[in-house]
Amino acid sequence: MRKKMLKLEKPHEIGLLIYPGVQMSAVHGLTDMFHFADRLARERLGATEAVIRLSHLSPRDSIEASRVYDTVPDAGGSPSFIIMAPSIKRPGDEGYEPSLVDWLREQYAQGTKLASVCGGAFLMAQTGVLKGRAVTTHYTLVSDLVRRFPGISVDPDRLFINHGDVMTAGGLMSWTDLGLHIIERTLGPVAMAETARFMVLDPPGREQVFYSVFAPRLAHGDDAILKVQDRLAKNGPRDVTVSAMASWSGLEERTFMRRFIKATGLRPNDYFQRFRIGRAREMLSLNRIPVERVAWAVGYDDPASFRKVFLKLTGLTPSGYRKRFGVG
Asked: Does residue 232 share a domain with residue 191?
């Protein structure tokens, strides 16, 4: 029996912004993903026309971005979503062209939802729409983003944060998570699942904390605190008290606590826990020694306590971490 062909409503337009320095491999990857989603959904629904409209938006030679690629040309209207893919270079302090930023603000004011991946968060933050919101970006860019835009709250452990009208995704490859979320939002969970299956991708649900490494702040300029950080790194993960750290710094304990938190963003005990778990991650990745021995080697006498702290800081159990990232 011949399948009845359907004509659906006007499709949602998903615009990929070709801004200066954008990572084109991510743009092309998202382009392919939305093409697959459109094709698979049309086959399943028996639709005669596109269910997703995909465009590439370029600000070249104009104060606003125009479509340089469009799967439903001459349809008019405005994008439902504009995605700022990762930047291939580290975002600088100079920022982006004011006319591009103003155009994004106008699109947002007209109801377009904005989304960023990795360094694309710097362009979105420049529009002001992230002020007062929790966002994420690549874990190596967190300090730069906080310094440039102090009005936003950055959570480097999250891979994807959705506020409805604005969305941010973390590291470079998290464009897959963002793309699948937008497919689910526009076409529904069945379309998202079939696209993920077709592309051999895990559905959304992982977190950036699985992948990040402990990278302590060292460019804060406080020599007394740097002395403590250096000694901790040299001594390794052996147990140490706050009083001992304060004595290494040459500061009174209360003064040391205040300056340590200001310099590193962490309380001394939290810093030391992250340092020890960082060493444990290295050991779990590179060899097959029992988890109990890893716990002891990084200063935990109780393996159960070690597992609890490891899960809290990484989102995985020690054995789960080794299974995912082990190369030994």
From this structure: no
